[in-house]
Amino acid sequence: MGSLSVFWEVSNYPKPRKESPFKMRRGKRTLPRRVNGDLRLQFGDEKLTSFAGLELLGRHFREIGLNQRVRDAFSRVSWRGDYPFVSMLRLLLAMMLLGARRLRHVRFLSRDPMVLRFSGLRSIPEERTLARWLGRFDRRSLLALGQISQDLVFDAIRRLKLRTLTLDIDGTVVSTGMQVEWAFRGFNPHHRKVPSYYPIVAHLAETGQILSVKNRPGNIHDGKRGVTFLQDLIRLIRSRLGRRVRLQMRMDGAFFQREVIETLTRSKVDYAIKVPMHHWLGLKPRIQMRMRWNHVAPGISSFETILPVSKWGLRLRVVCYRKKVFHPTAKNYQLDLFSPDDGVYEYSAVTTSLALDAKRLWFFMAGRGAQEKTLAELKGGFAFDTIPTRRYAANSAWQWISVLAHNLHRDFQMTRGTARRPRTSKVTYLFPFESIMTSRFEWLNVAGRLLNLAEGLTLRLPRSPEVEQRYRRWLRAA
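RESULT FIELD:
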């Protein structure tokens, strides 16, 4: 298709007046508007779109050469089908970026000209065609799909010249149906009897992007099956960036395992891992006997100790924290650790190889909350928790496409002149990212009209000062 220019329709709007420094209060009679009845509805073949913002994303995809990236990644993968692979992938990306959560939602996009243009298709396939297309994925094609997303993240790392990478490793539950392949009952806290997947995710704190994801059955525990994921992740980063980049990882108590700590130590990766209050660790007597606690922040105090773990043959540096709870209820007491008579505190412990004092370590671990926000946006905004088919490989491919859509959305914001945030002790996003829900409301899901004028194919948008300012600013930054 040819180039597409963008301009704003002004014929139906009065000319803007110079704003007076004195705001005049409008009369009450000028505010309401009378509605006499229902409008007549008509359906036509005009080239109207509800998603004008796809033009901005389409330009960004051409800038980064997304189509060629896909062709290069799948050059060694045999793929058969009537529809081009690049077009099908871009169609699924468009669905996730626009808010579709089911394959059947493609029916509501089939006549939109911007969706057709964005996907590079003359007609939109049916949902069964999409399901069969996802069902063709196997191990090799999943690796190729993941490579596209990972290349995007590594390009951002090089562009930002990051010397230290902070990775948050965690698993998240995705509930499934009863007949979904490789879905089992396991670690599903809210729906214990529902089969689920339990994918493990590597979140890059500096950019808020997902570097790697691996789909797993719901009965897999992070500590037992996470070692292979960590080894593959470290090997991938070292092969792409070398050893000049420093790695540090943050994990919850499920990763407090001997194999995990030994793997990170052997690979020279710094870590900070939450320590569970297991009885065999002997942390409870140390905390009970502790009389002097050092101030960390208002309501938070700590002390540091060297914890010998004879069961593993290791000596670990552990920092113990207690947090004052200002709303004492029965839910706030850790009854399995202390009696409520000992005070209203929440206790936690962290083992680390980082050269951080107790205060900086507390805020560093608090930065893991950014990963929870990213996972929430993946599930709520990019349909990561949707199960489109019954096949395991197809559902894994859906997760990778969801991650790719999220990474592209973050990359689009980083390359559009967004000002950097100052670094903090929490080590979170370097940029003030907006959520996909905000993007849809403010600039992505904007109505427009495609016109074939003498100047060429043109996208006409209604004049809205906020939308026009956003579009013009991002077009200048391109």
